[in-house]
Amino acid sequence: MQGEISRTGYFVGNSKHLTIKAPAKVNLYLEVTGRRPDGYHDLLTFMQKLELADTLEITIHENGEGIRMTSSAKDLPTDEGNLAVKAAQAFLAESGLSVAVEINLHKQIPIAAGLGGGSSDAAAVLIALNQLTGNPLPEECLQEAALALGADVPFLVSDYPAAWATGVGEKLQEASPLANCWIVLVNPGFAVSTKWVFESYGVLLAERLGKRNGLQPSCQPQTDNLALTTGGNPYILGREKDRTINIEQCQPGVATPLYNDLEAVTVTRYPELAEIKKLLLAHGAGGALMSGSGPTVFAHFDNEQQARASYQFFVDKYEVNVFLTKPQQNG
185: Cβ–Cβ under 8 A, 6 or more apart, which residues? Predict the structure, then answer.
């Protein structure tokens, strides 16, 4: 299970405690392959865990009940509006156990940034509670609980440091993680709603299909900068066929382009992301892409000196929410 590393535990009376890391993730490839009747989208995506992580302290009290959460991030809800609390509720309901749960979250991953922070916190809670209570839920039950919480959670619950995912994200195929590179993450400081991005992508796709068929859709997204996303500018769209990264898809060693279907939507409203990509590539990055629904842009560097110089450039520009990290090698 994810969480077997970077954790400590101790027992106090009728209480048990576990400290666990919840890693960020980036999407090196994200293709929306369809929409289901329930409104969810089918995906093909390659996800990679990072060393950048939140830290959660989980305590259970066997002689108690209820869930209490505290967080270092003052703007995060600590009730049912937080996925970590929902994960604790889901675990207790599925396991049938009656214990009190305390969750103390030390936040490092930016919120609503496309890095899976909330999903990873939820995954960490599921993992920790299962370990603290003697592993009452088998892997398949944890995966079912994870999927009910969000599309990224099954991957973040898994052992895999990297994986291809299909379906809504629940069908996982382990892949070789990135190695021998540095990752620069640049978050411009504003949040993006995943729900808005997927809804806008659907409308944008309908508009493009409509134009292709000579139709005029009745509902159109805000596309003031759509020309930028479709005009062949390699810094806007993620489909950079001349910038590939060696990640596996069925066959080892197949070079796959960095690609994100959702990038066109987010960059349409936030063209600043295009400039961040352009600068990262100018700094010597092997490739740059928006992760998930954004707005965080990541770049991979083979050269540590160039990575550190780029990181410092963006720290001077944005001050916060800029990170230099590495791909996680073990789940």
Answer: 24, 26, 50, 52, 115, 291, 296, 297, 298, 322, 323, 324, 325
CATH superfamily ID and name for 182-325: GHMP kinase, C-terminal domain (3.30.70.890)
Q: Which residues does the annotation mark as catalytic?
A: 25, 152
- Alpha-carbon 323 to chain mean position: 15
Q: 268: pLDDT confidence band, cut at 50, 70 and 90?
A: confident
Do the strands 8-12 and 15-35 form a parallel or antiparallel pair, or are they unpaired?
A: antiparallel
Confidence band of 255 (pLDDT split at 50, 70, 90): low
Domain 8-174 has CATH 3.30.230.10: yes
Phi, psi at residue 119, to the nearest 5°?
Answer: -65, -40
154-158, 224-228, 274-278: least confident range:
224-228
Q: Give the pLDDT mean for 196-205.
A: 77
Domains 8-174 and 182-325 share a fold: no
Give the whole-angstrom CA distance, residue 315 versus residue 321.
8
d(CA 51, CA 219): 42
At residue 48, the 3 state secondary structure works out as: strand
- Other CB atoms within 10 Å distance of the CB of residue 232: 8
Domain ranges of the chain: 8-174, 182-325
Q: Residue with structure tokens 């508009």?
A: 207
Residue type, 51: E
User: For 251, which DSSP code?
Assistant: B
Average pLDDT of the residues in 57-63: 94
